[in-house]
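Lab notebook, bench 4. We co-purified these components, and the gel suggests they stay together. Before we commit to crystallization screens, I want a quick structural picture of the whole thing.
Request: model the full complex, all chains together.
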Amino acid sequence: MSPDDFDGTERRLLQSIVEVARHMFAAAASSIFLVDPDTGELVFEAVSGEGEKELVGSRFPAGTGIVGWVAASGQPMVADDVSTVTQFAQHAAESTGYVPRTIMAAPLIRFEECIGVLEVLDPTASRSDLDDIELLGLFAMQAACGLEFLLRVRRSEGREPDGDPHMLLRRIGERLPGRARPSDATVVRLLAIADDLLAP
Amino acid sequence: MTPTSTPPWRREKRAHFPGVPAWGLATSRQAPERFQVSPLAEVTKEWAWGGADGTGVRVCVVDTGVDAGHPKIGGLERSFQVVSVDGGKLMVAECDPVDPAGHGTACAGVIKSIAPGVALTSLRVLTDGKTGTGDALMTGLSWAIDAGFDLVNLSLSTTRSDFRESLQELADRAYFRRCLMVAAAHNMPVLSFPWTFSSVVSVASHDEADPMTYYYNPAPPAEFHARGVKVPVAWPGGREIRSTGNSFAAPHITGICALILSKHPWLTPFQLKTVLYLAADNTTTQNGEGHVP
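Here is the predicted assembly.
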């Protein structure tokens, strides 16, 4: 394995997050979902414990169920006694092949934005006197930081050679209009600076 | 007014309180700390909401939608959602009374269990993971404040600091229009909005089981502690689950505010907060006397 095999590192990072999360709570299972930045869908990325490994890679619509709420709100949540609820049984069976009694889920936050959800099924004991929800939240914060560094390294590696600046300009042009995101104003300011620098 | 030691509101905040979500207090293990109170003698729980059921009070649940058909909800006045129209502009439109996530139904059920007479409206702002909480929240809240609700339950918050200023303006507008926002503290020890604003009523959890027990927190930003640990809540499909989070503490206070307003409809938001303060379990005893001599 080469040192810049970021895919391999990402796999191992995701797997280690779910392994640790499961053992922190002596839980039946733990799994991790990442938000697809283009569609908002949640992609099932890794599982530890009970569950179907072959479901890794499957996608779930945004904004549904507990994981959906956690992704949308950016807040952790615990739900008990869920095994009697058809919706959960279905969700759990679909996502991991295991029907839990308790679902805990915490967001993976990367600078004010939710990039994924860490889920723990059927915790039986906690290794801390912190509330479960807070402990999971703290751990998710660490996991998100690890993922963020990895994504940054990967992006800085892949981005350098943009041989044709006209391609870059065209892409910026296509991405910019009609979306009132706060980052757009920053982009416009940066373009204005570029314009000033190029001025004769 | 000469407290012998530094009062809670002047002290450094503790990092966390074990056993309950962030900002919460494990009141079953440790009694809330005593602090100096200037009682306004005639305000008691009985005065505040005795005999009231919330009738005549309009509450907007700003969340993931509400399942109107759930037995613990028993119907909604109306149901709206924030939608994206051409060009990405967000606006509020009427929608089916459904809740794909379950969270809003849980909050609405808590409000109804305390104040069965309220008229509930649902406004769905958490539509998907992509929209994010900020833009849809701003559009939705702004609409709810103008729509003239007496109370807005906001069991969510945004960590995005670029929304802080405009949210602050909205919170002030709500306050002066007599639309009281009851906002849940975040479940993690992070800074988010608008629950940290002084013009809203902010709520974190205590870990007792009585839905009407609540405490004033003399060391804000979370100003009140209400039931938020293992709360039995309504869930879509007519079911009930137990859930933990400050999200479920806030609707307890919303329900109690609805009771108070249905009995005293002309209270301003600052009076209502004062009544909440004076009728809290740690500023009164059962017979209405101040607990501090």
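Chain B has six helices and eleven strands. Worth comparing against the SEC data before the next meeting. Chain B has one domain: 53-278.
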